[in-house]
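Subject: Helicase-related protein

B.,
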Amino acid sequence: MDEILANHYQKAVERTKEMAFKDLYKYLEEKESAPSYEQYIRERGQYLDQLWLNAWLNSTTSHASYSEKKQFLFEKGYVVEEVSKKLINQMFRNEIRDVATFDLIGWLDSLYANQSAEWNQKYVEAREAYTNRLNLQQEREERKKLLLKLEYYIDQLLGEHYEDLYLYVRYLLGCQLAIEIEQKGILLSSKEIIFTNYLNNELELAYNSNRYDENVMEKYERLITNYLFDFGPNWLKEHLPPNLFKEYLKTYHQSLPDSLLKESAYEPFVDLGQEFFDDLLEEYVTDLTKLIDIPFDLVTHREIFDKDLSERERKIVQELEDIKRRKEEEERMIEDIFGREYNPPAGRNIHYVLHVGETNTGKTFQAIERMKQASSGIYLAPLRLLALEIYERLNEEGVPCSLKTGEEEKLVSGSAHQACTVEMFHEKEFYEVVVIDEAQMIADKDRGFSWYKAITKANAKEVHIICSFNAKAMILQLLSSSHVEVHEYVRDIPLEVEFQLFRLNHTRKGDAIVCFSRKRVLETASELQRSGRQVSMIYGSMPPETRKKQMQRFIKGETTVIVATDAIGMGLNLPIRRIVFLENDKFDGTRRRWLTSQEVKQIAGRAGRKGIYNIGKVAFTSNPKSMARLLEQKDEPLQGFAIAPTTAVFERFQKYSRKLGLFFYLWEQFESPEGTKKAALSEEKLLYEMIEDSIIEAKLSIADLYGFLHLPFSSNEPTLRAQWKQKLEAIIDGHELPDPKILESGLEELELSYKSVGLHLLFLYKLGKRTEAHYWERVREEISDKIHEQLKTGVQIEKKRCKRCGKSLSPGFKFQVCNECHFER
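Prediction pasted inline below.
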C-alpha cells in the first residue's frame, strides 16, 4: 500500500469497527429474545458490506492534507499544478476506491461465529443498556410532569386565594408606609389622597431636592414582590396538596425543597406583585397606614378592607356624579357664552362685489377706484404698509383720506375716507364703500376672524372683497343669502419658469431674491453688496416706513436687486423682472415644511410689471420642475374661516366669572362650528400667564384686560413682554407709562427699539393720549430713518464659519458645522 495511504488506513479500520458495534447494539437491543449471530449477518450483511467503503472514503478524504493528496496523485502520474482544489479532492477520492478492502464480516466472524457465550453476553449488555435508557427517559418524563403539576397548583392557589394574599401584603405595606411617613414627618394634605398621588408627590419632591437616586414607584413595586418571596414558600407548603409532596419524595427520593418552590413560583409571584401594586395604587394612604395598629387576622382585615372598598367606591361614584354635573354645567356655560355667535349671517341689504384673481392683476386698483368715487369709504388692509400706501395715494390724488392703525393715527381734515389695518374695523361706523383686501386671510388661524367680521358685519351700501381664487367658494358660501357680483382677473403678463438652477452670481438687474428669514435676507444682501451690487431689502419685522423707502430705491433704480422674505407676496407692486426662490421650504412657527402651491403663486406673481416687462420670470435654486408644477396646479379651496372671541361673548362670560383663565379653558372646550376653526389665542395666553391672579387682573374688566392681551405687538420678544407688563402695572397704579427702551448700537437694537416705541403707541392710542402719541410717532420715524440708512450703506454680516474648524461657509449653508466636521463627528 502506498505510504501516504498507510497512515490513514488503520484509522479507517477503527472507524469501521466502531460503526459495526453501534449497528450491532442497535440490532440486539430491540429484540425480545436473543437472535443467532448468523441471523444478524443475514439481515445486516448488505449494510455491513457498505460500511468499510464509506468509512475509508470519508475518513481518508477528510483527514488527508491537501499536499498529501497532490503528492499521491502526482505519484500516480496525474498533472496537479494549476488544478482547482475541488478537482484534486474529486480525483483523490476516485483513485483511493481500489485500495485493499478490510474484511469486516470476517473480523466479526472471528469474534462471534461459533462463539455462543460471547454472542449471548453481547445481547445481554445491549438489552440492559436499552432498558436503562428507557427507564431514565421515563423518569425524566415523570419529573417533568410533576414540575408542571407543581406550577399548575401554584397558579390555582394564587388565583383562589388572591384576596387573602392581597390583604396580608396590604397589611405589610401599610405598616411600612406608616413608619416611613412618621420618620419623614410628612403631613398629608388630604385624608383622601390615594397611594399613586402620594408616590407622584414623593417622586417630584425627590427630583426637586436633587436626591433623585431611585424611582419611588419601582421601590414600592419591588418591596411588594419581596414580601411575596419572603412568606410565599411557607404559605405554599401549607396550602399545596399533601399527595404532591409524597409524589415528589417518591420521584426524587428527597423532600420538596424551598428553593424549588421559589423557582416554580418566581414568575407567578412577580405577576401577582404587579397586580397587587396596581390595586394598592388606588387605595387611600390613610386606609393603609391605619393598619399598623391592627394585628393581622384574616377575618378582621377582610372586614376592614370591605368597608374601605365600599367607602372608596361610594366616593368614586360621588366624584363621577360631580364630574358629570360640572361637565353639564360647563356645556351649558359654553352654549350660553358662545352659542350661535359664529353662525354665518342671514342675507343683508348690501351690494357685495367680489374681486377674484391672481397676484398683480389689478384687483385692488379697481376696488380703490370705486371707493374714490364714493361719498365715504374705508380700505381694510392686512399690513400697515398697505394701509399707508393707500392713505398716501388717495391724498396725492386729491381724495382726503385718514390713516388709522393700532400704532398710529393720521387724521386729515375733512376726510370721509380712511385707510386702516383690518383689526381697526368697527361695525357701527357707516361707509358708502368698504374695501377688504387679501380676504383669503379669513382662513388664518390667528388673524382670520378680523376678515370674517369685516365681511359679515360691514355697515355699508357696497362692500368690495379682494381675494385669491382658492378663497372664492368659501366667501360665496359665507354670503350665500346675499347678492354678490363676481369679477375675475387673469394676468396679462405670462410667467415663465427658468429650468436652469439659479446661483447667486447669476443675479441680474430687476431680480427679487426670496428667502424665508430675516437672517437669510441680511446674509444674502451682504454677499450681493460685497460683489458691488446695490440692494434693497424687505422683511417682516422691518418698519413700514423703512420698507417703503427700500421699495422706492428699487423703483427709482437706485438699487438693482431686492432681497425679501415672503412679505413681498402681499400687495407690493414693484418693477420686478424675475422672482428667484432661494429656498423651497420655510419654517412656519412649528416646523420646516415645503411651500404650498398658493404661497409659490402669491410670491411668483410679483414678477412682471405691465408696461415695463412683457413677461415675468421665475427661477429656483433646486427642483425647478417640481416647483413649476406647483405654479401650474389648481389650488385646493380654502376650508373653514377663523373665529375668535367677540365683545358679546365676553359680556355673556362675565355672568359666570371674572377670571380669564376660565375663559381660555372654556374656549378650548368649545367645539368650533362646522366650517370654522378657532383662533389659537396662544399669544394672549402667553401674556395672561404673566399677570394671572395679580392686581392687574383684579382691577381690569374682562373686556379691557383682553383688549390689552390682544394688542398686536411682537409678544415673542421677551423684552417687549416685560415692557407690556410694566405699562399695565403703571396704568393700575395710576402712574405715567414708562418710556420705551431705545438702543441704537446696531441694526437689531434699532429694530427692537422701533417695536418698543410701537408698543408704547398702542398703549397711548388705547388710552386716548394722542398728543403724546404724535411725539412718539416722530421718534419712531427717526428710528426708521436710521434703520434705512444702515441698510442703505450696506449690511455688515460676519462671515459664516464652521463652529468646529472655523472653515468659511456659504451664506445659504443651513448648518452650524461644515460637512467634513459633521461626518467626522
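The longest helix spans residues 116-160.

T.
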